[in-house]
Amino acid sequence: MNTVPKTIWHVGGEDIRFRIPLLLALRDRGFNVGAVGSENGDAFAKYQIPYFQYTLEREINPLADIQARTQIFNLFSKYKPDVVHGFDTKPAMITPIIGMKAKIPGRVRTINGMGYIFSSNSPLALTLRPIYRHLQKQASAAAGITVFQNIDDRAYFRKHQMVKDGCDDLVLGSGIDIEQLIKNRPNPEQLAVVRQELGLEGQLVVTMIARLVVAKGVREYLDAARIVCQKMPNVKFILIGPFSSEGRQAIPIKEVQQQAEFVSYLGVRNDITTLLSLSDIFVLPSYREGMSRVLLEAGAMQLPLITTNTPGCKDIVRDGWNGLLVPPRNAKALATAILQLLKSPDQRILMGTRSEMHVRENFSLQKVADSYTNIYYRVLGLSHSEQLQLNKSRSEVNYL
Question: Pfam families recorded for this chain (predicted)?
């Protein structure tokens, strides 16, 4: 029986580095791993994970899309991984189709959310929906398994026959390495230095981390900050994340600067664990998610969470238990929820404790890695006895 380790490649975009913990967990389970993305590969070199860069644009650009497809096809044809697994909107659509053309036996894709097209009722979004359904149906036909991160997206795909019967699965998120987050938490002296640098001394801190686009609820966060600060002293709102080039979806920098009296915009930061450790409440008023990684990370850091009652957000927060749910696009309701938690330190502590427990029990890295291990076995058509043999070989290698 062939017990050579199977090679798994994850294909994504500009934030493919966030798959590194999952790739490392898969490597621990006996797989060879690699990644294909549009960012530089510095983060992967540290862990000796083979990485290949290609050209990808978020916006609709036929010439750039053809170039990306060609680059990926050439990589698949040259290296022949056993499984290619696409994440994010474009990679999840093109990876299985290109994988099929390149004769890759295992083709998996994860739907990380349905984004603007389904969170907006604008004429453009409504026009794009039928096109999106058609493209997703084609991608599902080429994939062995389509993975969903929340039950709402899965139900939508099934209702509109965008996925083949028996060829889907549900995996809640991409896995949070809770122990690593705790390990990276700075000591009190280090926190005090950062707190002073950011002018947060004596302040209650409300934090949001997201790309600065409309669908993440950035405008609602800015408006809620103004409402809260006008009613309650000693509160500091911070906003972290990159500006976007996504056309009308992008929030202009002037719009953020106009609220500088109430919100400190910190740009892109590499010390997210530190900033979460300084925070009292974490907020994400997104219109829709797949399964919000940043909400999960904030929960793992024992923060009470305020988010919207929408797919990919409501799966993480139980209203009144580990946080509060508010309607999307409603800055007043968001401000009311923030004020409620700011005025109740005991409630914040209790909810934060529950958040960590919830993430640990349902969204841990080990649980997600086990789920994907089974999916890769399944898409490769391995029998139960072959899986047991691979597991045995893996255990022997780990022992040695």
Answer: Glyco_trans_4_2, Glycos_transf_1
Q: Answer yes or no: is pLDDT of 2 > 80.
A: no
Task: Indicate the domain borders of the chain.
Answer: 7-175+364-399, 178-362
C-alpha distance from residue 53 to each of 9, 15, 20, 42, 283 (Å): 13, 12, 15, 11, 33
Strand pairing partners for 106?
Answer: 83
**What was the pLDDT predicted at 387?**
57
Element (H, E) at 2: none
Give the range among 125-134, 342-351, 376-385 with minimum mean pLDDT.
376-385
C-alpha neighbours within 13 Å on the C-beta side of residue 389 = 11
Architecture of domain 7-175+364-399: 3-Layer(aba) Sandwich (3.40)
| Side chain identity, residue 165 | D
For residue 214, count other CB atoms closer than 10 A to its CB. Answer: 19
What span, in angstroms and rounded, lies between the C-alpha atoms of 297 and 312?
14
Our CA angle for 278, 282, 287, nearest 5°, is: 155
Q: What is the CATH number of domain 178-362?
A: 3.40.50.2000
Q: Residues 97-119, buried b or exposed e (16+ Cβ, 10 A)? A: bbbbebebbbbbbbbbbbbbbbb
Is 233 within 8 Å of 262 (Cβ atoms)? no
- Burial of 368 per CB tally in 10 Å (0-12, 13-18, 19+): buried
pTM for this predicted structure:
0.88
7-175+364-399 and 178-362, same CATH topology: yes
pLDDT for 398 beyond 50: no
Q: How confident is the model at residue 114 (pLDDT cuts 50, 70, 90)?
A: confident
